[in-house]
Design brief:
This protein is an all-beta fold and about 110 residues long. It is built from no helices and eleven strands. The protein has strands spanning about 5, 10-15, 20-25, 35-40, 45-50, 55-60, 65-70, 75-80, 90-95, 100, 105-110. The strands form two sheets. Strands 2, 4, 5, 6, 9, 10 and 11 form a seven-stranded mixed sheet that branches. The chain has a four-stranded antiparallel sheet with strand order 1-3-8-7, with no helix packed on it. The mean pLDDT is about 95.
């Protein structure tokens, strides 16, 4: 059974950094594109970053060079490094692979 478990969320001050991880089980990760999404209270879920299986990347317009998505196929791990956080980055962050979603991890940024 395929499963994704996110970790690494928490509380940060504006301007600080956080790193998120997503542990993937039941996947041969190198066969899949990977994605991070987020959903803030009262807002729709939006794409944060996406990486194809050949490591092409695309980021949401709001990222503006602050975030970086990466993958470690042998370790079945997907990561999102977030720098220069702002209060507007406060949301639940989700990992998605092959249509399977993790449970999400809360990121709260105080200004």
């Amino acid at each position: 059974q395929s499963q994704l478990v996110e970790s690494g969320g928490g509380l940060a001050q504006a301007g600080e950094s956080l790193g998120l991880s997503c542990a993937a089980s039941g996947f041969t990760l190198e066969h899949y594109g990977i994605g991070w999404f987020r959903q803030a209270p009262g807002k729709e879920r939006e794409m944060v970053a996406n990486m194809t299986n050949d490591e092409s990347t695309i980021y949401g317009d709001f990222v503006k060079g602050r975030f970086s998505i990466s993958r470690d196929n042998p370790k079945r791990t997907v990561s999102l490094q977030m720098n220069s956080l702002t209060a507007e980055d406060t949301a639940v962050y989700y990992c998605m692979i092959g249509g399977v979603w993790g449970q999400g991890t809360q990121v709260t940024v105080s200004s």
